[in-house]
Design goal:
It is built from twelve helices and no strands. With 263 residues, the chain is mostly helical.
Length: 263
Amino acid sequence: MGPCSATEKHSPQSAATGRPGFVCRAASLVPPHTRWGCTWLVGFRLRRTLVACGALARKGLEHLIRKHLVGAGHHRVTLTATLVVIVGAASLLGGCGKPSAASKASSLIQDGVTAGREGNSAAALADYQAAVTADPLSAIAYYDLGVAYGERDDVDQARTSFQKALLINPRYKSALFDLAVLDTPTEPTTAETLYRQLDDLYPNSPNALFNLGLLLDHLGNKAGGAAAIAKAVALEPSLASRLPKPAKPTKPASPTTSTTKAP
C-alpha cells in the first residue's frame, strides 16, 4: 500500500474513530491525539517561521498548511502529509533572506546609474559589468553596459553589449535604436535593417523614422529618405530643426577689372 493521496476517490474507515478519512498505514501506527498534537506543533512552528519571510512564501506555506494539515473537518494528518508540508516549507523558505540574481543585478544597475550621474564613469562601468555577471539574463544590464562602453568610445564592446541585450529581448527598443546609431557610420545597411525593424515593432516612432530618412538619403534613396523625414517631422515638428541646412549657392566670381590702361 502506497502513500495516501488527497485526490483518491475511496474513503476508508479509520480504525481509531470509525469515521471516513484518508489515513496512511504509517500514520495509523501513531495514536490520533499524538498525530494531531504533532500537526498543531508543525503548523505553529511553520507559521512562526513565516514572520521573517516575504508575502509569497507566507501565502504558499499557509496554503500547504490548510491543504495538508486540516482535512475536511477531521483533525487527522498523515505522516506523508506532514513530510509534504516540511519539504514545501524548506523549498519556500530556503531562499529566504537571500537576494535573487535579478534583485542583485537591479541594485548594481542602480549603483551604476548613480555613479554615472556623479561623473564616475569607471565605477559605473564596473557596476554594470558586475550586474551582467550577477544576472546574465538581464537585458537592461547589458544595455546599460553598452551605453557605458559607448561613452568611453569602445564601439566594439558597446555593439557586443547591445547585441546581447537583443538576444535576451529582441523587442528592446532602446537597444535596437542605439545599435542602429552605432552601426550607421560603418555598417549602414545593417543600420537600415535595424531602423526598419524598429518601425515594424513600434510604428510612428519619430526619431527612428528621422534617422532612417537621413540614412536612406545618404544611401541614395532620395524619395524614400524624404518620405521618412516628412513623416517624422509631422509626428514631431521639432525634428525639423535638425535637418541639414541646404548649402547657400555661391555667387559667381566677377571678372577681374584691370586697372591698367590699354596703351
